[in-house]
Each structure stands twice: as structure tokens, then as C-alpha cells.
Write a structure and sequence with these properties.
The structure is a single chain. The protein is mainly alpha-helical. The chain has helices at residues 4-26, 31-52, 64-84, 87-111, 116-137, 151-166, 171-191. Helix 1 packs across helix 3 (64-84) and helix 1 packs antiparallel against helix 4 (87-111). The termini are far apart.
Length: 203
């Protein structure tokens, strides 16, 4: 039976893959191209995290992540006409993936014995780096470099993970609170157009 963390990773993989495949479909990619974009979105952040942590990338030990991305492609093929016309669909799936992958990244880094400041950075990489690869593949400016609060939501989620741990909460409760905090920060930032200050250079 899959563990709680594996279930979270599978849901996050599916959510992130859909966000990537949906954007690829808007750019008129073929099925294989859309799958590659979805897969890169889903496993990119975790792969970079695992390479930095000097462990075998997670998807190389379990084919389920590749299968999840394939199921996401099938989902978009079957229900794409409904998904593409829903403006909030990409945001919802992307935010779910962001929240789930952030807490998985923080938890895995801590389990390997690294300090919290490293775990928070790795949570941010796990959550946001796949989205960077997605945006590069579809020739868009990566979302984390635009005005929207994206990677900062991961950082806040990592800090919440640390606070919950200090308060002595159980691991599952800590993961849930951390993930919800990422989603809420992202939701509020988009809903109320909250953004970080723009660095203005001389023209």
C-alpha cells in the first residue's frame, strides 16, 4: 500500500501534469509534446531537489509518476474542451501541485537530516522549479519571475511546516497545515492581486 506521502506525491504529480498539459494544448502541442511538458512540470522540481540532496531522483524508483502524467494527458484529451475554457482550471491545479510538492520537499529534506533552512529552500525548489521548466518549454516568462507570488508561497509553507514542528504537531497534521498555507497564500495573492515590489532599473 502506498504511504501518505506517496499518495500526496501522486496527486501532486497529476495536478501539476494537468497544468502543464493544459498550457501545452493552448500552444497546440501534439500529444507527445504535451506529455513531455506535463511530465517536466510534474517531476522537474523533485528531480532538481533529489540531485542537490544527492539521492536517486524519486521517479527513477517508481514508474507511477510517469503513469500519473500519462493519465493526466488522457484526462485532458477526454475532457480538454471543458478544461481549456475554464480560466480558473490552470490556477487550481497548479496551486494544488505547488502546495503538495512543497510539503513533500520539506519533509524529504528533513528526513535526510538537513536543517530547516535547507528544507525550506528545497520545498521551494520542489514546488516551483517544475513550473519554470514548463514555462520555458512553452516559451513563456517563468511564473516565478513575474509579479505573482509563487515561490514565496512555498517559502511561507516551509516556515509553517517549521512552526508546526516546533509546536509538536503530528507529521500528518504538519503536512496538511503547511500545504493549506501554500494554497491560501497563492489564492489570496491572485484574488487580491498581492505582489512583491518590482525592481525598476534605469532605462
Amino acid at each position: 500500500m502506498p504511504t501518505f506521502v506517496q499518495i500526496i506525491e501522486f496527486i501532486g504529480t497529476f495536478a501539476f501534469a494537468i497544468s502543464g498539459i493544459r498550457l501545452a494544448s493552448a500552444k497546440q502541442f501534439d500529444w507527445f509534446g504535451a506529455y513531455v511538458v506535463g511530465l517536466a512540470t510534474a517531476i522537474g522540481g523533485g528531480t532538481i531537489r533529489d540531485v542537490l540532496l544527492d539521492v536517486t531522483p524519486f521517479w527513477m524508483t517508481n514508474p507511477m509518476y510517469l503513469i500519473c502524467s500519462g493519465l493526466a494527458l488522457l484526462w485532458v484529451i477526454l475532457f480538454g474542451k471543458y478544461l481549456i475554457h475554464l480560466n480558473n482550471t490552470f490556477f487550481i491545479f497548479d496551486s494544488i501541485g505547488l502546495a503538495l510538492f512543497t510539503m513533500v520537499g520539506v519533509g524529504k529534506t528533513l528526513a535526510l537530516g538537513h536543517p530547516y533552512w535547507v528544507a525550506i529552500i528545497m520545498g521551494g525548489i520542489t514546488g516551483s522549479a517544475g513550473g519554470v521548466l514548463r514555462d520555458v518549454f512553452i516559451n513563456e516568462i517563468p511564473l516565478i519571475f513575474r509579479r505573482e507570488i509563487y515561490a514565496m508561497a512555498c517559502v511561507i509553507g516551509g516556515i509553517m511546516f517549521w512552526i508546526c514542528d516546533l509546536l509538536g504537531l503530528t507529521l500528518i497534521m504538519t503536512q496538511i497545515i503547511s500545504g493549506i498555507s501554500v494554497f491560501i497564500v497563492r489564492f489570496l495573492a491572485v484574488k487580491y492581486q498581492i505582489c512583491l515590489p518590482i525592481l525598476k532599473g534605469e532605462h
